[in-house]
Amino acid sequence: DTGVSQNPRHKITKRGQNVTFRCDPISEHNRLYWYRQTLGQGPEFLTYFQNEAQLEKSRLLSDRFSAERPKGSFSTLEIQRTEQGDSAMYLCASSFPSGETQYFGPGTRLLVL
Amino acid sequence: DAKTTQPNSMESNEEEPVHLPCNHSTISGTDYIHWYRQLPSQGPEYVIHGLTSNVNNRMASLAIAEDRKSSTLILHRATLRDAAVYYCILDETAYNFNKFYFGSGTKLNVKP
Questions:
Q1: Which of A76, B40, B65, B80 falls 20 to 30 Å from A88 in CA-CA distance?
Q2: Chain A window 30-59: which residues touch B at a Cβ cutoff of 8 Å?
Q3: pLDDT digits (tens, 9 = 90+) for B37-51
Q4: Pick from A40, A102, A103: which is nearest to B100 by CB?
Q5: Per-residue pLDDT at A98
Q6: CB-based contact A56 B95, cutoff 8 Å
Q7: Rounded mean pLDDT of B12-22?
Q8: Residue of B nearest to A55 (CA)
Q9: CA–CA separation, A103 vs B91, rounded Å?
Q10: What is the pLDDT of residue B1?
Q11: What is the pLDDT of residues B68-101, one digit of tens each?
């Protein structure tokens, strides 16, 4: 059973650097979601893909953030010019077209120094 | 404002039932209620979900108030492996996708 995988699991970077995270969803799932989770809080929705189309973006997703899902398979989330406030856990989830249950990956923990 | 409110923490004894409450007074008629749990350094794991009627599965039961403004997750016999943060989530189905709104979660401690 290959669930949702995310790489890297941990990333430490210096302020101002660019970082990119990868998410591989469950293969039959056409829906893919990105969330951000800060310490002690629940995850917050960032963006949603249906196949390769990015159909919804949260106001949390500033212009320094960009997400892609080429060919409707894996997805990448890039943060440009990182800031200390970007330090968080970035979670990816995927679901079937019916969509009610989302399956989460283990997350990528980002620390910006 | 948060769409769901939960107690910050609760404690239970092993082998006893646990009732985790959640308020969601702004819920609309088509919003599903989900519960997920999260262990440290892991992603959230699905527990149960429902719309109007009470729901049971092998992990837990979900009791939904008649006015749908609150719900309760019931773990029938808590084990040490049930210690986790439990999130009550409103699922707004909009534009043909399910948008999850997580609460701040209840940290459940289970005492042996």
A1: B80
A2: 31, 33, 35, 40-45, 48, 50, 55-56
A3: 999 989 999 999 999
A4: A102
A5: 75
A6: yes
A7: 96
A8: B95
A9: 14
A10: 62
A11: 999 999 999 999 999 999 999 999 876 677 889 9
The residue to which tokens 């009610």 are assigned: A100
CB contact under 8 A, A102 and B98: yes
User: For A8-104, where are the E strands, in sequence order?
Assistant: 10-13, 19-24, 31-37, 44-50, 53-57, 65-68, 75-79, 88-95, 103-104
Distances (CA, A) of A12 to A9, A19, A110, A113, B95: 10, 9, 6, 7, 36
Q: Residue type at B89? A: I
Mean pLDDT confidence for A54-62: 87
Residue owning tokens 């088509």: B30
CA-based nearest residue in chain A for residue B37: A42
Note whether A106 contacts B96, CB cutoff 8 Å.
Answer: no
